[in-house]
Amino acid sequence: MSSHNTVTHKSTKIKTIRDVVEWNLCMGCGACVAFCEKENGVDLVDIPTAGLRPRSGADCGSCSRCLAVCPGVSVDAAETNDDEPESIVENLQVGNYHGVYEGYAADREIRFIGSSGGILSALSVYALEKGGMDYVVHTGMDKAQPWKNRTVISRNKPQLLDNAGSRYCTSSPCELFDVIEKSAGRCVFIGKPCDVAALAKARRLRPQLDANVGLALSFFCAGTPCSDAVRELVGGLGVEADEISSLRFRGQGWPGRFEVQSTKGGEPKTISYLRTWTTLAKRRPFRCHICPDGMGLLSDITSGDAWNRYTGEAESDGISHVVVRTGRGRRLLESAVQAGYVELTPSTADDIIKAQGIHLRRTVVFGRLIGMRLCGVPTPRYSNFGLFSSWLRTNPLVMTSSIFGTLKRMVVRKLWRRSPYFYR
Fold it and tell me: Rounded to two decimals, what is the model's pTM?
């Protein structure tokens, strides 16, 4: 994608990580925590109404070193770690790729537990058992507070399956960058598209981190609700947060159901996937609404539900779309297929567009950024996403509503001014 579609605005209002947080540009990925070299520089705190956010500590100065890896400041789609760029296929809506497939985990247990086809879990198991990887960094349920997430390290199939499935709540896998860098082994990193964007930046700055990440996997993402949203959803089912023993957002069939088990016993409380996401989506942070990448353009492989194959049955066997972004991803996927870990059939970018609405956000991001600037609010710097071209391809009504709808949101939600979450 050409550089003339770069959104080059750079605000002088963003000078520290606190600025990123208070201007609502943070996604809580945790990269700044891992990159801070001060003992009491930055820590990560869950703001129930917003998400995981970095808090400047007593030793935090004005070095702003952490901003170099912050996807709230900038994201460049050209920072992909592809070792076979000559064979890439360019696509404005889906992003660059080496191949597009539909498939699922060959292991029925993985396919059943996973949120759709269990592709990422199956690839992770293959990477550990036959792909030369030593561990997987990903997100799982916080057993102490099941409505929240925690970053986990899995070293075998049972550990992976114990943390498999979507977690529709704020997460911070990038907080372990320093652990990965100091590790004696190589890992698979699984994260949201913004997490993988932070990883791409970090790998360019830290050669040892780059060497220790053997594979970066991502998934189609429409945003991460705050922990309060999950608590409210659970409360609507008659379960208090301190009574939760386990909580599952999806899985155990496709599309799966939200399920919460109380410490008081009895049958678990459940609601449909559609109702779950419709409820939680209302509590996504502002930064998710201006995200140019819901499809993991900077990963090696990204995956998401093949909704175009969903029959509408109560529960069925999951099917995933699989998009191969790099040569490294292509080689691993081919090896996993040959070893019998995943089953694939060829698909197309058009199939993904039919199945997913995530690509539509890219058609409005440019207009939303204009709306922010009209309010004098700093915006992230997006490069090589084709945002202007995508915006021009939509109809005039959408173009104008993307600007004026944002202006309205900025005023109603008071986003035109800083949100001082922390006082020091």
Answer: 0.94
